[in-house]
Amino acid sequence: MLTPQNTQVAIVSFEGPDEYARAGGLAVRVRDLCETLAAEDFRTHLFFIGDPRLPAVEERGNLALYRWSQWISAYHLGGVYDGEWGKLQDLTGSLPPFLIDGIIRPAADRGLVTVVMGEDWQTAPAMIHLAALTEQSGLRAQVIPVWTANNLYGFEQIDLPALDVATTILTVSRYMKHEMQRYGLNPLVTPNGVSPSALVDVLPSDSRQLRNAFRSEVALFKIGRFSPDKRWLMALDAVALLKRAGVPARILMRGDKLLYGQEVLSHAEAQGLRVENLTQRYTDIASLSAAIASRPEVDVLNLAAFLPDSLLPTIYASVDAVLANSGHEPFGLVGLEVMAAGGLAVVGSTGEDYAEPQRNAVVLDTDDPREIVVQLRRLLAAPDEAFRIRQRGKETARDYIWPETMKELFAKLEYAALARGVEVHA
Hints:
Blueprint: E1 7-12, H1 25-39, E2 43-48, E3 57-60, E4 63-67, H2 70-73, H3 84-109, E5 113-119, H4 124-137, E6 143-149, H5 160-166, E7 168-171, H6 174-181, E8 188-189, H7 204-214, E9 218-223, H8 232-244, E10 249-254, H9 260-270, E11 275-278, H10 285-293, E12 300-303, H11 312-318, E13 321-324, H12 333-340, E14 345-347, E15 362-363, H13 369-380, H14 383-399, H15 402-420
Parallel strand pairs: 1-2, 1-5, 2-4, 5-6, 6-7, 7-8, 9-10, 9-13, 10-12, 11-12, 13-14, 14-15
Antiparallel strand pairs: 3-4
Helix pairs in contact: 3-4, 4-5, 7-10, 7-11, 8-13, 12-14
């Protein structure tokens, strides 16, 4: 059995907890997983492409942060994926030797095994390199190497047969397992989780203040990468349909820096929606509410600056629905975070294994914006039902906090250890 007394964990990820290193759900996943592991007394090391202006190594109790490739990031201040190829090459070449000499061997000398978790396609070459080094150094029996697919991005650039030998492959949902079987893989499913701190009771006064700021019959929110997979056009078309039907509707949205965002905003304008970019950073609900209330004529309020995590639960809980309506969603972390805050999540029908139609979420079957309109109108006409869905959503989220989902992760890690002949001492 893997315990803090016989095991340490090293996680390798491009994204991480720094603002510089945050681009999507992967950053949230690794941050919350690392913090939970550390809180459970596991010595935890997180290697990520961090802010070049912050310390290279930072100790936070049981958690150590290693900001890798800072010398490259100093020339690419646009974020974690700015200069991606150079960072990938540096990570692949320089990190595995450090893991051997600085993390794995010292732990093995103390009788500990090291779980090394690679995250997503950028880390696959490093995990393959690490496997070769563990063989050469005689440390194979002290390492449990696993690699998690949080999406299908970059699969065409991975040596999948080599990765399948070098690691035990994991993924985050049954949907992703089936998708990966098309590549000849049979991954173990280890569901994502949310931080226990995501389970919050939003202050009614804050919720009322933000909801009243919309001054519309329907208030919506959408957050995510500007990618066609996220079905931004479907969401905005639904707002346009409501407006044409005489139903006042407004949407607050937060994307990223991808160029597809300009296409999304142009599409909204072509549908007759008035769009405005909110370029100020809002650090509290009062300032965000004031910004929304001061623009009553704007249909689409696009948050173009960094949005603090601290504001998200109140936004989730305050609007009538959060449109997490992706067409390809490996897990759907946003939907689960919405539930944890008492919000009403509108999700797709792919990797959101936790979503049950009309019980804890609205689950869409199509990419037709009229389906969103029908569901919103039905729930607005039945507020008691909407309230029950929110309550059940919160109950579901309690089952998916990391201390709970980590039990399944460790069951799969122990299987991987046994299958790979790793020696775990009691």
